[in-house]
Amino acid sequence: MTELELPMAPDPRIGASCTLNAADLPGRVAEWRSLRDRAIAVETIEDGARLRFAPHEPIDAIARLVALESECCAFYRFTIGVDGSHRELTIDAGQGGAPAVHALLGLPG
Fold it and tell me: I need a surface site. Which of 9, 11, 83, 86 has the fewest CB within 10 A?
């Protein structure tokens, strides 16, 4: 498997739901991997992942990427949390969707 292949969840509707064209895929994946690399903690959850960020991480950059991704992959659910200096992004793809989230972020399993 190459770095840009994104194995989707067992549900074939998830893989078929992405509308991003092949030319834009490498750049988008790179943006998600960069965001993952800026996280101070990455936790896998039942249907996805949770990323925690330092207080100086710009929320607008996270929100921009979330907005772009929600346009092409409506099956992802994003929750941005801010509590004082605590910043967090939770991504899931519904029941059985963890492989799609993990692939997007370049996480094992």
Answer: 83
